[in-house]
């Protein structure tokens, strides 16, 4: 029989369905962390489910299409779908990184300045690693270097 490791088992934190992180509570308290953990897990599950559906669809649609225009159209659709899946795969990696930051106590803080990232920004983009100001500076620098 296996042993239960008490210290490794986390107690489920109760969050009401209508809970939203608020600025008037301590930043990244247990409720906020649980809120973002659940949001990230749900997002990841949705992406993985979509990915499974795509793979099944691509396998089902492998057929010989005699018309050249129809075949080209189907190949274009397939390429677009695969590109979308690749973007989603990268997104899943970012979600996993955000979940790691939650576990390590680093979630919600800008990787550039160390300042808290606004709750509004995190709610809209829970994988954000920079505050809005740091992100804008980063994008301006990137644009300048791209124009060289």
Automatic annotation (TrEMBL):
Ranges of biased composition (kind: Basic and acidic residues): 7-23
Listed Pfam families: DksA_N (PF21157), zf-dskA_traR (PF01258)
PROSITE patterns from the UniProt entry: ZF_DKSA_1 (PS01102), ZF_DKSA_2 (PS51128)
Transmembrane segments: none
Compartment(s): Cytoplasm
GO BP annotations, alphabetical order: regulation of gene expression
Zinc finger residue ranges, dksA C4-type: 110-134
Main location: cytoplasm
Domain of life: Bacteria
Region (Disordered): 1-26, 55-76
Residues of the Zinc finger DksA/TraR C4-type domain: 105-140
A GO term for molecular function: zinc ion binding
Domain DnaK suppressor protein DksA N-terminal: 32-102
UniProt GO cellular component terms: cytoplasm
Role of this protein: Transcription factor that acts by binding directly to the RNA polymerase (RNAP). Required for negative regulation of rRNA expression and positive regulation of several amino acid biosynthesis promoters.
NCBIfam families: dksA (TIGR02420)
Subunit structure: Interacts directly with the RNA polymerase.
Protein's name in the database: RNA polymerase-binding transcription factor DksA
Organism field: Phaeobacter italicus
